[in-house]
Amino acid sequence: MDLTLPITEVKGVGPKTAERLHKVGIFTLKDLIYTFPRDYANYQVAGHISEIRPGKITVRGKIKSLATRRARHRNLSITEGIIYDDTGSIRVVWFNQNYRARQFDEKQEYYFQGVYDFKNGRYQLTSPSAALARDIDAKSAFSPIYVAHSTLKSPFFVKLLQNLRPNFVKIPDLLPSSPENPPFVKQSARAEALYKVHFPENPQEVIEAREYLAYEELFEYILAAKLNRQENQKLQSLPLKFDASKTKSFIGKLPFKLTDAQRRATWDILQDLEKSTPMNRLLQGDVGAGKTVVAAIAAHQTAMNHCQAALLAPTAILATQHAEKLEKLLSSLGISVALLTGATKHKTELKKRIKNGEVDLVIGTHALLTDDTTFHSLALCIIDEQHRFGVNQRQKLLLKSPDGLAPHLLSMTATPIPRSLQLTVFGDLDISIINQLPAGRQPITTKIISEINQKPDLYPKINEIIKKGQQVYWICPSIEENPTQETTSVKRQQKHLQTIFSHAKIGLLHGRMKSAEKDQVMTDFANHKLDILVSTTVVEVGVDVPNATAIVIMDAENYGLAQLHQLRGRVGRGDQASFCFLITPADHAPSRRLKEIEKSTDGFYLAEVDLKLRGPGEIYGALQHGILNLQIANLADTRTIALASKYASNFAKHPDNMLKYEELAHDIKKYQQLTTLN
User: Fold this and answer.
1) N or C: fewer beta carbons within 10 Å in the chain?
2) Where are the beta strands (DSSP E) in 361-436?
3) Which pLDDT band, with edges at 50, 70 and 90, does 470 fall under?
4) Which residues contact 278 (CB under 8 A, 6 or more apart)?
5) pTM as predicted
6) pLDDT tens sequence across 349-382
């Protein structure tokens, strides 16, 4: 079976259907076969209503008393009814699914699957799926459910895969068999696993299939990372010698004392800079942990060796902030610092100075990447919030080092990365962690508030903060009102807040504004020309405003744990007590995600919790370096990660093995390009 064949080779896929499949990333047979079920309908476990307990349940019964009403406090429709069998009855609720009131025949029996939980003072089954009992036979009693994409619903994928079913036995092996892999990676293991994941007879078959497929997925990612590390070790760079007396003198003149974590990270970096192979290090520190000063010490060592450093930042305002901080730290030592952005005046003159080696440290945005920006002796590249730059952009900066030498690379991120993720996707990197906040930082108090309690519990507190001369971020998920979404928009919220806080100056920020407009609004906020900034998540990584001491996050359930932690990091940057308010719907108890962020400000702890809550899926939010998704492997599965790491290491010792495995080699090349930072 040739998995590279176009999707049109599958029975039932004509040009129009192929076009729709292309839109969701399915171009080949392999893309279709590796579109795994998101869940399974298991009608084999249906129980009597009298026996059910809170949690995910399946029941068989009839339904009655269906009615739809509007919620009192928000634009929400609620359809309610009663499911019953011979042993008892339970309440069922659907939100914004008005068609449910007309869907059911009260004389027929149905299977219902969903979560049975305590809500609003009583137990209920919330938004379950439903299937007519008479349509379920022995074959469909345990069946796959695929993610729906617009007009491409789960039954469509079931039908397509059924058309391919006889050919699954012909799927070729992907991974090498023993001794390069563990015993369960045997002949035809892949074909068997893919068959069982799409056409299982029971849950146990799915477990067995997922074990192999998770290993396969992790093996490829880890092998790509290990081969990247080997490639990096072949490169040559200029050693930047460490001068102990000058470094101690510089650190001694800093207006603050380094934390122990900053000292450890600094020492890692200074040692790497002395090597003739390029440093490839990721510096991860929680929001406000003091990564910039560590970068300054690295730039100082570079300048002491008569070489240049460049710092690439994702936005002009962040680049400007870095430039101001680093100039204060370095200019008194005779180190020349310059800022290069799209708005920089006299760019031609500045670029000439950079080319002639008159500038030691250049801080900039994408303007650093233009062809006419050339360096005299670029030896260190620092990339802030590196996940915001694509592979080609990072590569463009690294190729600006003269004489064919590779510059040392220091990537920085404020998003803590779980250990298991470090071992897989970031396996080609050395990692330093700053897990302490500088002295004097006040902890951020986080509080969950129901939307109906904003007036008594939130507004007086915000008023108090503004009267003290402090500032507030107010985050909303959407830009404009959308009748199909129950989310708060920045435009409506700004008008609403202006009526509540009539004496406050309230600004607006969102992603559809032009870059110059966004920068102006952030500059106005940083200069305290605004009291409240109503914004979408464009402020997630941004300018440092020590005077902002509160952040309100509307519809907080809409955000992932990592994103909530990043948003909260906008406050608590000064020596004032700071607050984060998470606003939740009136008709829902807060999720575990919100309860975790309410109790902890430790980004590294939250990263591990986030990983456990997400399971398989997107690799830690914005940290993906391209289209990098785990479909079936779970990054909390340390046993499989360790196993894949061991066998990938053995395989990587003989890279010529790749010649024997064409499909594997193709995948690895793709993953190498996506994951590499250097």
Assistant:
1) N
2) 361-364, 378-384, 408-413, 430-434
3) very high
4) 232, 235, 236, 237, 406, 407, 408, 409, 678
5) 0.73
6) 999 999 999 999 999 998 999 999 999 999 999 9
